[in-house]
Write a structure and sequence with these properties.
mainly alpha
Length: about 130
């Protein structure tokens, strides 16, 4: 039978320590990049689904608004005349302003901010500093 030699690893010197530090750092960066890629693919899937649902909702809302507005104009034309168009325009402007405000609030809350990746990067920064 052939004997295999067991060689004890040498105690690393300065170059060995630096090499180990570089390898560990690269592994850390690579694992964080992999986590970010995984989260980005999840975010992309959610965004596609939300975009399709949003498009369908917008289409349905436009039909509802159009038919509802036409009905209101026909019913109130005798009483208010062309003023009904101004009233409806003002009402739609207020609704649009409220919707834009809620969108800004959702963006400020960080709904698309990759929370797990950011938490890991913050933990890494705190550990290193």
């Amino acid at each position: 039978m052939e004997q295999t030699e067991h060689i004890e690893p040498r105690a690393p010197g300065l170059i060995g320590s630096v090499s180990g530090l570089v390898k560990t750092s690269l592994r850390l960066v690579l694992s964080r990049v992999e986590l970010a890629v995984a989260e980005l693919s999840e975010v992309r899937d959610h965004l596609v689904k939300l975009a399709v649902l949003f498009a369908l909702a917008v289409l349905a809302a436009l039909f509802a608004i159009g038919f509802g507005t036409a009905t209101i104009v026909v019913l109130l034309w005798e009483a208010l005349g062309p003023w009904i168009l101004l009233i409806l325009a003002a009402a739609f402007a207020v609704i649009a302003w409220l919707i834009i405000g809620s969108i800004k609030k959702a963006v400020r809350n960080g709904s698309l901010g990759l929370p797990a990746t950011m938490a890991e990067l913050k933990a890494d920064r705190d550990m290193l500093l």
